[in-house]
Amino acid sequence: MSTRDRTRHWLRAHPLALDAALATGVLACIVAGSFVDPHGENGATWGARTPNALSLTLMVLGAAALVFRRRAPRTVLAATGALSLVELVTGDPRAPVVMSAVVALYTVASATDRPTTWRVGLLTMTVLTGVAMLAGPLPWYAQENLGIFAWTGMAAAGGDAVRSRRAVVHAIRERAERAERTREEEARRRVAEERLRIARDLHDVVAHHIALVNVQAGVAAHVMDKRPDQAKEALAHVREASRSALNELRATVGLLRQSGDPEAPTEPAPGLARLDELADTFRNAGLPVEVARSDHGTSLPAAVDLAAYRVIQEALTNVQKHAGQEAKAEVSVVRVGPNVEVTVLDNGPGKDAGPEGGGGPKEGGGHGLLGMRERVTALGGTCTAGPRYGGGFRVHAILPVKNRTPALGDSV
């Protein structure tokens, strides 16, 4: 920190010392000015004079009052104005005691609002100038009287300009701070939403593939001794499911890398174009899946396409885990007006069925159904899930084709 900066910081921390220095400077100027006669004698342009004791006393009192100008600006203005009136009426009218009132008026104008500045400024100008013209010993048109009017007017205008500039700077700084807080809050909100989205994707990927690995591993363990060929096939499915899980996990977690990272994923987000591939993974795991679609030719936003895929994936995963070995699943994707409707049905129950029967999750299950509803709701759609009449479970999602919600999944 430079010497000037340290001095400025110290003066801001000690305003009374700054006002005392200002009062000393004003006193020195008005005392020096009181010894100068602008008219001179014997036709001289400039001359010298000696102020009387009353004038010197009024100068000292007026300058001393300026020490407290920030604590009580209007009181100091009243005191210095009164001292100036006494000087104008009883003392030497050429003694510049009124300069202390000019400084006090500037302080009032810089510390109050504009209407107050107008009222106080006009009152000060009128009283001081009027008394000097009407009650002073000099002619009303003397330049000293006109000088009082000019100096008080400039003091009021200068104080008001300083106050206005200070207010503008404060408003700009406040707007900048508010904008910074808004940007930080928006960044935190986006980070939270991104974390939630990534958590949902991780849940969908892990739940789907781990369920397949669990089923195929159980099959392999059951037939290992009697039918080694079938066990080998089941283990191959385990390996394929685990590889797919690793690839999708790598793609999802890769979103956390920097944009310039060359290892960042370039594969597009999964969508209904991969629905047949998804169904084949469950068929290979022993779950018969029938797919019916009437949405061919429909172009979906990336977020809607991803949401539909994840809903089907989660629903089939729940069927695989809860509906039993004899269960079957039916998937339908239908375009209805401005929406796409996704339905997943199963015919449970099985021994691992949920409390209502069918392929719903058991009590204390995970957050799959909640994640589906949140994902669909975020896009302006609806999602319902519950047991079917006569057994089984039904998941039904309605997704708008033209969603107006920011597509958080577009960058998956």
Automatic annotation (TrEMBL):
<feature type="transmembrane region" description="Helical">
    <location>
        <begin position="16"/>
        <end position="36"/>
    </location>
</feature>
<keyword id="KW-0812">Transmembrane</keyword>
<dbReference type="Pfam" id="PF02518">
    <property type="entry name" value="HATPase_c"/>
</dbReference>
<dbReference type="InterPro" id="IPR050482">
    <property type="entry name" value="Sensor_HK_TwoCompSys"/>
</dbReference>
<feature type="domain" description="DUF7134">
    <location>
        <begin position="8"/>
        <end position="166"/>
    </location>
</feature>
<protein>
    <recommendedName>
        <fullName>histidine kinase</fullName>
        <ecNumber>2.7.13.3</ecNumber>
    </recommendedName>
</protein>
<dbReference type="InterPro" id="IPR055558">
    <property type="entry name" value="DUF7134"/>
</dbReference>
<dbReference type="Pfam" id="PF23539">
    <property type="entry name" value="DUF7134"/>
</dbReference>
<dbReference type="GO" id="GO:0016301">
    <property type="term" value="F:kinase activity"/>
</dbReference>
<keyword id="KW-0597">Phosphoprotein</keyword>
<keyword id="KW-0472">Membrane</keyword>
<keyword id="KW-0902">Two-component regulatory system</keyword>
<feature type="region of interest" description="Disordered">
    <location>
        <begin position="346"/>
        <end position="368"/>
    </location>
</feature>
<feature type="coiled-coil region">
    <location>
        <begin position="169"/>
        <end position="196"/>
    </location>
</feature>
<keyword id="KW-0547">Nucleotide-binding</keyword>
<feature type="transmembrane region" description="Helical">
    <location>
        <begin position="120"/>
        <end position="142"/>
    </location>
</feature>
<feature type="transmembrane region" description="Helical">
    <location>
        <begin position="48"/>
        <end position="68"/>
    </location>
</feature>
<keyword id="KW-0808">Transferase</keyword>
<feature type="domain" description="Signal transduction histidine kinase subgroup 3 dimerisation and phosphoacceptor">
    <location>
        <begin position="194"/>
        <end position="259"/>
    </location>
</feature>
<keyword id="KW-0067">ATP-binding</keyword>
<keyword id="KW-0418">Kinase</keyword>
<keyword id="KW-0175">Coiled coil</keyword>
<feature type="domain" description="Histidine kinase/HSP90-like ATPase">
    <location>
        <begin position="307"/>
        <end position="402"/>
    </location>
</feature>
<dbReference type="InterPro" id="IPR036890">
    <property type="entry name" value="HATPase_C_sf"/>
</dbReference>
<dbReference type="InterPro" id="IPR003594">
    <property type="entry name" value="HATPase_dom"/>
</dbReference>
<keyword id="KW-1133">Transmembrane helix</keyword>
<dbReference type="InterPro" id="IPR011712">
    <property type="entry name" value="Sig_transdc_His_kin_sub3_dim/P"/>
</dbReference>
<dbReference type="Pfam" id="PF07730">
    <property type="entry name" value="HisKA_3"/>
</dbReference>
<feature type="compositionally biased region" description="Gly residues">
    <location>
        <begin position="355"/>
        <end position="368"/>
    </location>
</feature>
